[in-house]
Amino acid sequence: MRDSTLPSTEATAGILQRPYLWVTIGACSLVFLAAFESLAVTTIMPVASRELDGASLYALAFAGPMATGVIGMVAAGNWSDRRGPTLPLYASVALFVLGLIIAGSAVSMPMMVAGRLVQGLGGGALTVALYVVVARVYPAVLHPGIFAAFSAAWVIPSLVGPFAAGIVAEVFSWHWVFLGVVGLVVPALVMIVPVLRGMDREPEQATTPPWAVGRIAWAALAALAVLGLNLSAEASIAGVPAAPVLLAAAAVVIALVAVRPLVPRGTLLARRGLPSVILTRGLAAAAFFGAEVYLPYLLIEEYAFPPTFAGLALTAGAVAWAGAAAIQGRLGTRFPHRAAVSLGALLVLAAIILTLATSALHWSAAVAIAAWTFAGGGMGLLYPRLSVMTLALSSKEDEGFNSSAMSIADSLGGALALATTGIVFAAFATTAESFAGVFALAAVVAVAALAVAPRVSR
Known about the structure:
- By secondary structure, the chain is mostly helical.
- The chain folds into three domains: 9-196, MFS general substrate transporter like domains (Growth Hormone, Chain: A), CATH 1.20.1250; 212-262; 267-458, MFS general substrate transporter like domains (Growth Hormone, Chain: A), CATH 1.20.1250.20.
- Helices cover 76% and strands 0% of the residues.
- It contains 16 helices and no strands.
- The protein is globular.
- Residues 1-9 have low confidence and may be disordered.
């Protein structure tokens, strides 16, 4: 419920003007810290794993939070629809902080993984709760601006996160990459507290939805399927050549069956309107992130780039993402939703095709680096617009469900793509063929995203 105490004239205020200034800073800070943590861990995990003698659990430390995040998204969405986003936001921040403390205090790799699982549960719930807060606090005209700010808050850590985490780990300890964030989360939440008062659902409003126990159970099944798919490549260790493929196929089928109750009806069929908005979001995440993680690897293995310079390709894409998100936010409705989403999907597809050609035909590395700038720009155009459309096509009763569906599409799309590309990469005899196979698969997914994009509008 939007705060009825806000004067109507304030609907035209910017997101950094009263009465939205502090809630904007607080919400963007929480998004920034969650994004920073996910990126910083990539830098320090090899050090932590070596110190804790946990090489066998290394992959699970990354796959686990992504899987438990799906459960957090569904639970927070259902809770927000029942009682408003206030308590879900408090609970998600508490879980996120608890996970940081457990991981930061870890004396063994199982303890580290346990902390990461709790952290993922809270992080997934946090994203959904914040989206519902946006729906209740900001007028629709400001949604493009606040979601552009969220995009920037996700992108900026990619510029500083890995470098800052490396310095902290070298000067102090990898433990402080987790523990240091705890002291920043609380002030960010305090900035949002004033607008949360009185936001819970009032008894005289629409009938309170029941707890969706079934949806939460489906979310748990989807999370297990994602974990199974991420670990399927290790099945070949048992000496069964077909085991990875069979396990991966079963995991994908289970994930798709489990996700159906978690997204709007007709999502997997690309029905026009909200279902296609959610599907486009998942396909775009799968195509972009499925290719992005292999771009630095390509530059290091095939072009002998040092890791520092290989990461510049991702930096260029991150800057383009933030810039495009800011531009589309300023244009608002002058740039139609359908056009923004379709153009963004086209840019992502073109970038992946150029990267595929670079790896297959041994073109200059500059082609792939330049291409990834366009990929970042494409994501900056379509991601915020899909967030805006999700809220615009939601009623007050299903804001939480639809927000969680959008986050689930992000998480499952990226997780399924990363696990599948890992299997494809291992299937070829040479590294050059492996890179080509990965980018070809990402291109196929990007084609699907481009095909569904025009259906986001009814």
